[in-house]
Amino acid sequence: MTADAETLVRAKNLKVHFPIHAGIFRRQVGAVKAVDGLNFDIKRGETLGLVGESGCGKSTAGRAMLRLYELTDGQIDFEGVDIAGLSKNDLREMRPRMQMIFQDPQACLNPRMTVGDIIAEPLDEHTKMSSKEKRDKVKSLLESVGMNPDYVNRYPHEFSGGQRQRIGIARALALEPDFIVCDEPIAALDVSIQAQVVNLLQDIQDRMGLTYLFISHDLSMVRHIADRVAVMYLGRIVELAPKEELYSNPKHPYTKALLSAVPVPDPEVEKTREHIVLKGDVPSPANPPSGCRFSTRCPVAQKNCFVDDPEWRKIGDGGYVACHYAE
Questions:
Q1: pTM across the whole model
Q2: Which domains does the chain possess?
Q3: Which stretches of the chain are DSSP H helices?
Q4: From CA 193, how far away is CA 195, in angstroms rounded?
Q5: pLDDT tens digits along 103-140
């Protein structure tokens, strides 16, 4: 999609299928196709937003990008190196350059470790710093995320949700990575704290030149932070475009339905808006429909939509869509 010099990470036909076992002998009888053929790239220094309803495979895709889940098929090129095919030792050498910020700041911090030990753990694993150097580095990281460096000897339960997420961000920054997957980093936080954390992520990106994959179901927040937005449905990306184009002129019927559900803070405008209500439930990823994945709920579906898989094609100014009838 873009020149290799501009691209930091590229996913090619990315698939992650989880086997379904049944019976006394636990034979495989099927597979949950959580991620089923993603193609996208992320430029250096940009934020790609990945949105979609719960269960569509966003978090699985994010973890697969760092190979926290093993791929069923496909490639993940990181600066031209396919990390999907690397051995564990070679992958370990690349780990410092790609990190993750997790969704639940309470679950991802070890309650038995102090804040200082939590943030220093990546330094213990991947560097040969002295104890004093690590201590100074940890205090510097705490300051960089807006926290008191004297908190190094406290435990996670002594902090609020927003402060715990800042600790998680400090840990992700410890090895000075190039690429960070933000897996719904604000979903478990109060609304009043969400903006603070997003602004912090943007400030850090500006200072360090980071590249983000920002996963969220909050379309308003994604519009605030992302440069481009990818919309995911049932394991596949159905539309990808620069954020202004996607929000002002969505092409895919699913994107239109998602955006119509976002309230507008002007009652007069809200009265005149058309809300697209989708019928039925999301099909099971263990048994997805043939043809277009969205065909069973699409308000404009035709006969060929239930049979033919739509081509991933370029449309508009830098946008891509998987739909037979998008114009």
A1: 0.92
A2: 7-322 (3.40.50.300)
A3: 58-65, 88-94, 115-126, 131-144, 161-173, 191-208, 219-225, 243-248, 253-260, 267-272
A4: 6
A5: 888 899 999 999 999 999 999 999 999 999 999 999 99
